[in-house]
Amino acid sequence: MNKQSQWLTPVEQRAWRSVIRMYERLDGRLSRGLQSESCLSGSDYAVLVNLSEAPDGRMRHVDLARCLEWEKSRMSHQVSRMAKRGLVDRQECPEDGRGAFVVITPEGREVIAKAAPRHVSDVRRLFIEPLTPDELQAFARMADRIVDRLEEERC
Fold first, then answer.
1. d(CA 101, CA 83)
2. 122 partner at 20 to 30 Å CA-CA among 33, 41, 66, 97?
3. pLDDT by residue (tens digit) across 62-89?
4. How far apart are the C-alpha atoms of 15 and 13, rounded to whole Å?
5. Which of 111, 64, 53, 67 is nearest to 90 (CA)?
């Protein structure tokens, strides 16, 4: 880290704050929609989406946490809460006695199948529709470039 930080210019600060404001409002609105319709939190949904798209509906605990950019303890608490509700199970990893898999249950699959149409509808209404197709493509390219930088700098 530099001894002296270079402050953001007004243009940079506006762009950064706009991204943060958009993310917070979009995340809050989508989370409230999930909660009201399906009793899933945004975190529940994120876990279930990743597991439902994984081979055999399972991922190593550590890989799921990395994918979601969560600390190990947050992942453990989230999985524990979801396991109590029957949405996921934990399975031992035969190759690594210390590792474990998180596995989506049939109930978890049913819950995500019911929640997904409303969630997609909300995403379409709140994020897709306000943008033109060209803006969407540009947005995706910019977001991908930032994600690539984050991946390059992963600890």
1. 12
2. 66
3. 999 999 999 999 999 999 999 999 999 9
4. 5
5. 64
Helix (H, G, I), strand (E, B) or coil at 97: strand
Residues 6+ apart with CB under 8 A from 44: 34, 78, 82, 87
Six-digit token string for 116: 């997904």
For residue 120, what pLDDT is reported? 96
Tokens of 125: 């209404």
Looking at residue 92, its pLDDT comes to: 87
Can you read off the two tokens belonging to residue 75? 């992942």
**Could you identify the residue written with the tokens 């995500």?**
112
User: Which pLDDT score, from 0 to 100, does residue 93 have?
Assistant: 77
CATH of the domain spanning 20-152, picked from 3.40.50.1220, 3.30.365.10, 1.10.10.10, 2.40.110.10: 1.10.10.10
Which whole-number Å values give the CA distances from 120 to 62, 72, 97, in the listed order? 27, 29, 38
The CA distance from 123 to 26, in Å, is 9
